[in-house]
Design a protein that fits this description.
The chain has 1408 residues and is an alpha+beta fold. Helix content is 45%, strand content 14%. The chain has 55 helices and 34 strands. Strand 25 and strand 26 form a beta hairpin. Helix 10 packs antiparallel against helix 11 and helix 27 runs parallel beside helix 29. The chain starts with 6 loop residues before the first helix and ends in a 9-residue tail after the last helix. One of its GO terms (biological process) is protein targeting to vacuole.
């Protein structure tokens, strides 16, 4: 029970204005602008907006848990709490006044949270402007400093704000200030003597009607004051355990109920009563710190307009412990509604809680924001119809910094303070950062000493003390949309700026473009944290638009005023480029063209450079059709400006995008013509003349069409330019080609009902325009025709210009003709004219005539065709294409006829006559087309073979016919027989492709094909492509070559050919080995150097017959290879030895340069081959057989040296000695050294005293022996050293002590010393994890059975998600046999960086 304060004690309370309090009030007068106390939460209106698209409900339980059950829960954190810096808990190292801690921005650079600042901050100033107004309360700040200096009030420690501002001090005083303009000191509660007894004020709270103040003290006491009279109402000393500081004290919405939280981590409910004039306080423990420490509490407060909200009857309270969040209801009875664990986090991070009412889905409900570290979670609390509370998790906010404070400024905007005292303003819905403010100048007060309870001896837990390092709960208070920050010597207030203030702030900093962009975002309703705009959208837009107009005038005046008077024209242009385009853009956005073309244009016209920039800015808007009408004066000035800059193409583009029907032609186009240095004229014809003279053809057509509804005159003007050179057979200039292309496009647009160059012709004019164009095209003569003019000049001109494109235009036009009788008459008339012009005129090429008849064939092939064309004309075209007077344009004529047939023109011809004429004209593609229609696929092979341009495609054609389904067996058989008939021609065309075709489809006819091939070299090429997988085949062989010419031609070119797909049936080759032997015989003739390489890959040949073939052609090396393969090693050796001896005889002859002599290279090559032969076979021979190989070889090399005289060239001797040493080195590998020396000494020559001649050889052998002996000894020493090093490291790792990270089992989470089971061992891994052996056994973490069970780390194995332990069991056993004497298991890391070893604690521990 708290001590009671009766009327007597109340009278004894110190006067609120006694002593220094009254002096301070009189001495300090601060004049500050009146604070704006806007209720920024008025936007909690019913808005149909979702807080989060991904919300999900937390499951409800039938029976909510009790506080006691929650306290007894085991924390399921992945990592245990480990104090990283034990010195933080050393009370002796702290000053008892450490609550005066100033800014940590300068001293906290080593904080681990700063490591998260690698992400670069966004520069949001240019987007959102300055969102927050940062103001110093000078009056309050000055009085706080004065109180500390003059009356020893102490430094500020806590702040609470309502309609008054309360500041607690380190000497136990509570200073009450008004929030008016004067910020006068209203009350000074308490005294320094009481402060000496109770300690510093550690927490403050003002109730909702600002009538009571609760003060919590560092030594655990609490006091209640009347803010109206300044009287002490209650002094509470026994509401919670003694020796603990008050960390938080909070009023609820019930004025008789408050909550306090002490440094022991406990939470108590305080109930205030008054019985018979005596005030009392009853205390009830809500949460015991012995089960888990709470370090932050936050009751739910509702505003007056929400006092009837159904959720308020529960009096919700949020509590944040070191491991979880709890939401409980105090009324009508104590009940737990939700628990939420943090998960993994930094132990030094500060838990934060904040409530706010938020509108969502047409309902307003409270939302709880909580965080610890860098992730903010939002929980929406609702009450259903049954009265139960549901908690829904909203989208969380990921940050790149740790937080120490979280404050709602309204339902959409939150303000965060990070661990280095930077303020972040965040839009909650979009999670966009609006502004960042540096707060280090505040020198924020921290509550570290209270969390460490230094005033009572520091009896707090390590975890709570670590959290208290950055705790500033009592230094920040919010009320009415304002946030107050308490510094060591000052008080600051942060308020959202109004929209107009934000814009003006940018203007003061000369950020005009940014100010306009921000104002436009307010205009469009896309801005964030908007204050001061209300009403409907149209009203808001009107208000913002008026302000934007003022800014635009300011921008224009500023640009003109600050324009440099002197300097380069480019500098002046750049100056106006920064402003004028912005003014133009926003005038058009605001749809204020009147402002743009009157006042703004008049202003910029005062400066010629600004005027030019203004006019150039209009171009993109005109071209994008955002600006279709401008005033006459601006139009005139615009065209003059572009003409002066010689930008005529831009002028044309501007004209065709203008709505000339809305202009005053008497005024505007007279100005237009004047702009081009002509006299003032007022008719369209003269405007057209001006465009024509300046080659503005699109503009000319546009003016004709839009201004006068005249569509034929532009065509006449263009025809007059291109018709004369075309009729004379001359080439057109580039300008004339451009005009011709424009004419074609213009005609196409007119016939399609589209306006040129853009838009559409009015619907009522479309039929009239089409008729006019057709009548124009079919005119017999032009208006000014001469006597020499050909008939139908317009159609002739278009056909000569581009036949294909003109016919395409007609084809597109004919597509639109349905049941229009007049249109169908025009269609037939034009077709008749086309036939008359092109058939009777010899000036057209076959390609042009073919285009016409292809066009006709497509029209005639339509199901609803109404055209009539005489079939005789098609026969004339066929004769024209297939029976030319000369052989020119053969490919062109064939392609034209093919297109005609493919377009449906085949029905106009007699097929038999067409085939005869195509064969006579050598139109093989036409023949193929006809044969394919008649399914005569075999005859198509002849077409390919006769066509030099497509003859190699015959192989793919044959393969497709024989492989692809869809052809009948009779058709495939005919193609097969035709291919066999032409097989020799196919092989001559491309042996490689022919072999591929034979291997795929004619594998059973190889013998017959061989008999058909009469040319031996052609047969060689075919067999080589068929049998040799390394075959190098060749391009087609020119016809008419004899055998010698063919050989020379192929050997000269010999490009490689792909072997993909060639796979001859080996069974057929085994049945007919003479095919392979015939190929080997031909290979010996035409390419003997590749015989051995080919034999190594071939299999289907007989050794005896092949040996006879090689002997016939004297290929000794090949014969030796075959003998070796047969098993006659000695016979192969004798052949190689004979070759070597013959080359040695040639080599011993006189030579000028031995090293470059081809004979020496031959000797060396043959010797290497002979040595290789001996080495390959010595392993399978006995000693006598080896000597029979090596000693004759050695004798053969030494014989020339014995016979040589002293007059022999020394170079010969040196070369022979080097080769002999090579033989001796190879011999020593298979023959014992004594045997070699004995054989040398038994030689009669050296036995008679001529050992000096081979002294070098013997010494060389001895040197080789010494080198090999030294190499062996060195290698043995290195291996022994490595083995010793490995065993030492293994022994060190086995005997190394281990330091576990915690003193409890990582599975059962119980202290290992508390377990009493005798058979339970302790297993420690080098990764630091500790387990009971029974726990590991239950988790199936054993490898092996019996008394030598091996263990694997459960935590490391499961966290890395390796899968089943048994998968790596064999690897573990294989690599850890050397660990048999160790009781604890080494770590999981591998010194060589093996990825698997890094993931799993693969080493094991033995149990006892």
């Amino acid at each position: 029970m708290a001590s009671e304060v009766g009327p007597e004690s109340e009278e004894a309370a110190p006067s609120p204005r006694g002593g220094f309090g009254e002096g301070l009030a009189q001495a300090l007068e601060a004049s500050l602008p009146r604070l704006s106390y806007l209720d920024l939460d008025k936007d909690v209106e019913f808005r149909n907006e979702l807080i989060d698209d991904k919300e999900f409900d937390i499951p409800q339980v039938d029976t909510p848990p009790t506080l006691e059950s929650i306290l007894n829960e085991t924390d399921d954190e992945d990592e245990p709490f480990v104090l990283e810096d034990p010195t933080l808990l050393n009370i002796d190292t702290f000053d008892t006044h450490s609550y005066d801690t100033s800014s940590v921005a300068s001293s906290d650079s080593g904080d681990r949270t700063n490591l998260k600042r690698k992400k670069k901050l966004l520069d949001s100033f240019s987007v959102h402007g300055s969102v927050m107004r940062h103001s110093l309360l000078k009056g309050i700040s000055a009085q706080i400093v004065s109180a500390a200096d003059k009356v020893d009030a102490g430094l500020p420690t806590a702040i609470a704000v309502s309609r008054l501002i309360a500041v607690g001090t380190s000497h136990g005083l509570a200073l009450i200030f008004g929030k008016d303009q004067n910020q006068a000191l209203r009350l000074c509660l308490g005294s320094t003597s009481v402060g000496g007894q109770y300690g510093a004020i550690s927490a403050l709270s003002i109730n909702h009607d600002c009538s009571r103040l609760l003060c919590g003290f560092a030594k655990g006491q609490m006091t209640m004051w009347d803010l109206a009279s300044g009287k002490l109402l209650r002094s509470i000393t026994d509401a919670h355990p003694p020796g603990t500081a008050i960390l938080h004290i909070k009023f609820t919405d019930d004025p008789t109920l408050a909550i306090c939280n002490d440094s022991g981590g406990s939470v108590f409910e305080l109930t205030f009563k008054r019985v018979m004039g005596v005030r009392t306080c009853e205390s009830r423990c809500l949460f015991s710190g012995s089960k888990g420490e709470v370090c932050c509490i936050e009751p739910l407060h509702s505003k007056a307009e929400l006092k009837d909200h159904p959720i308020t009857q529960f009096s919700l309270l949020a509590m944040a412990s070191l491991t979880k969040i709890l939401v409980i209801g105090l009324k009508p009875s104590l009940k737990v509604w939700m628990t939420f664990p943090y998960g993994r986090m930094d132990p030094s991070s500060v838990p934060l809680l904040a409530w706010h009412f938020v509108a969502a889905n047409n309902y307003v409900n409270p939302t709880l924001a909580f965080c610890r570290g860098d992730v903010v979670h939002f929980l929406l609390v609702k009450r259903d119809e049954s009265g139960a509370i549901h908690v829904t998790k909203q989208k969380h906010l990921h940050l790149y910094y740790d937080l120490i404070n979280f404050t709602w400024i309204n339902s959409r905007t939150i303000v965060l303070l990070d661990s280095v005292e930077k303020l972040h303003v965040i839009d909650r819905l979009t999670q966009e950062e609006l502004e960042t403010v540096e707060m280090s100048e505040v020198q924020l007060v921290y509550n570290s000493s209270h969390f460490k309870s230094l005033a009572t001896g520091g009896n707090v837990s390590q975890a709570l003390a670590l959290v208290g390092e950055k705790a500033c709960y009592q230094s920040i208070s919010s009320y009415g949309g304002q946030i107050f920050y308490l510094g060591t010597k000052s008080v600051y207030v942060m308020t959202l700026r109004s929209w107009r203030e934000r814009v003006d702030h940018l203007l003061k900093q000369e950020c005009l473009t940014e100010a306009l962009a921000l104002a436009w975002s307010f205009h469009e309703g896309k801005a964030k944290a908007v204050v001061g705009l209300s009403g409907d959208a149209s009203k808001r837009k009107a208000i913002v638009a008026d302000r934007m107009v003022e800014i635009l005038f300011h921008c224009a005046d500023r640009a003109l005023k600050k324009c440099p008077d002197q300097g380069k024209i480019q500098v002046m242009e750049q100056h106006f480029q920064d402003t004028v385009p912005v003014v133009v853009d926003y005038c058009l956005r605001l749809q204020r063209r009147d402002l743009l073309f009157s006042q703004m244009y008049d202003k910029f016209s005062e400066n010629s450079v600004a005027k030019g920039v203004f006019l150039e800015c209009l171009e993109p808007y005109i071209l994008s059709d955002q600006l279709v009408g401008i005033t006459a004066q601006v139009m005139k000035d615009l065209l003059i400006h572009f003409q002066d800059k010689k930008l005529m193409e831009n002028v044309e583009a501007l004209i065709v995008h203008m709505d000339i029907t809305s202009l005053d032609i008497q005024q505007d186009f007279s100005g237009l013509v004047t702009a081009f240095r002509s006299r003032v004229i007022c008719s369209f014809s003269q405007v057209v003349l001006m465009c024509w003279e300046n080659r503005l053809y699109d503009a000319m057509i546009y003016v004709y069409n839009r201004g006068m509804n005249e569509f034929i005159s532009p065509m006449e003007k263009l025809f007059k330019v291109i018709a004369p050179p075309l009729s004379a057979g001359k080439s057109l200039t580039d300008e004339q080609v451009i005009m011709g292309n424009k004419l074609l496009v213009y005609i196409s647009c007119c016939l399609a009902g589209r306006a040129y160059p853009l838009g559409d012709i009015p619907e009522d004019l479309v039929p009239l325009v089409k008729n006019q164009v057709f009548e124009f095209l079919i005119r017999l003569h032009s208006a000014e025709a001469s006597s020499e003019e050909e008939i139908y000049p317009y159609i002739c001109t278009l056909l000569h210009f581009d036949t294909r494109e003109f016919l395409n235009v007609l084809a597109l036009t004919f597509e639109d003709f349905k049941n229009d009788k007049q249109a169908l008459e025009y269609q037939q008339r034009i077709v008749d004219i086309l036939l008359k012009v092109m058939v009777e005129n010899s000036d057209f090429t076959p390609s042009q005539v073919g285009c016409l008849f292809t066009f006709l064939a497509r029209q005639l092939a339509k199901p609803d065709n109404t055209l009539f064309v005489n079939r005789t004309l098609f026969d004339q075209v066929l004769e024209f294409l297939c029976s030319p007077d000369d052989d020119s344009r053969h490919a062109e004529r064939q392609q034209v006829l093919l297109e005609l047939l493919q377009a449906g023109g085949i029905v106009q011809f007699e097929e038999s006559r067409l085939i005869r004429m195509a064969e006579r004209a050598e139109f093989y593609q036409i023949c193929e087309f006809m044969y394919e229609r008649e399914h005569q696929y075999d005859r198509i092979i002849d077409c390919y073979l006769r066509d030099p341009l497509r003859e190699e495609e015959v192989f793919n054609y044959i393969h497709n016919i024989l492989s692809i389904p869809g052809h009948s067996p009779e058709e495939k058989q005919s193609v097969w027989q035709k291919a066999m008939l032409h097989i020799e021609e196919l092989v001559a065309l491309n042996p490689c492709k022919a072999a591929e075709l034979v291997a795929t489809h004619f594998s059973g006819q190889v013998e017959a094909i061989i008999h058909k091939l009469q040319n031996p070299f052609l047969l060689f090429q075919f067999l080589r492509s068929l049998l040799d997988p390394r075959a190098v085949t060749h391009r087609e062989i020119p016809r008419g070559m004899d055998e010698i010419d063919v050989t020379c031609h192929v050997l000269a070119k010999a490009p490689q050919c792909s072997r993909e797909g060639i796979s001859m049936n080996q069974e057929s080759l085994q049945a007919s080995p003479y095919i392979t032997e015939q190929f080997i015989d031909l290979l010996c003739q035409y390419n003997p150097h590749q015989v051995i390489d080919t034999l190594q890959v071939l299999e289907s040949y007989r050794l005896e017959e092949t040996i006879q073939i090689t002997q016939k052609y004297q290929l000794l090396e090949v014969c030796a290879y075959l003998l070796e393969k047969k098993g006659d090693v000695h016979g192969a050796f004798l052949i190689m030895l004979e070759r070597l001896q013959s080359r040695l005889q040639e080599f011993t002859k006189e030579s000028e340069n031995v090293r470059e002599d081809p004979s020496f290279k031959d000797v060396e090559e043959i010797l290497v081959e002979t040595i290789a032969l001996c080495q390959r076979n010595s392993q399978s021979l006995n000693q006598q057989q080896r000597e029979a190989l090596w000693f004759p070889l050695l004798e053969a090399m030494m014989a020339p040296q014995k016979l040589s005289s002293s007059s022999a060239p020394p170079r010969h001797a040196e070369s022979l000695k080097s080769l002999t040493m090579q033989v001796l080195d190879s011999t020593a590998a298979f023959i014992a050294l004594p045997s070699i020396l004995q054989r040398i000494l038994q030689d009669p020559v050296y036995g008679r005293g001529r050992l000096g001649e081979i002294q070098g050889l013997i010494l060389g052998m001895l040197d080789t022996f010494n080198y090999e002996q030294t190499l062996l000894e060195t290698t043995t020493n290195l291996l022994n050293h490595d083995l010793h090093w490995s065993l030492c490291n293994l022994r060190a790792s086995v005997t190394r002590g281990l330091n576990p990270k915690q003193d409890y089992c990582c599975i059962c989470l119980q202290q290992y010393r508390r377990r009493q089971e005798v058979a339970d061992d302790i297993v420690v891994f080098s990764c630091g994890h500790l387990y009971h052996s029974l726990c590991l056994l239950n988790k199936e973490c054993t490898v092996g059975t019996g008394s030598q069970a091996r263990w694997m780390c459960y935590r490391c194995n499961s966290s890395n998600k390796i899968g089943k332990l048994g998968e790596n069991a064999s690897d573990v056993k294989k690599g850890q046999l050397a660990q048999a004497q160790v009781k604890t298991s080494p770590s999981c890391s591998s010194p060589r960086g093996d990825s698997a070893a890094k993931k799993v604690c693969s080493e094991v521990a033995w149990t006892t």
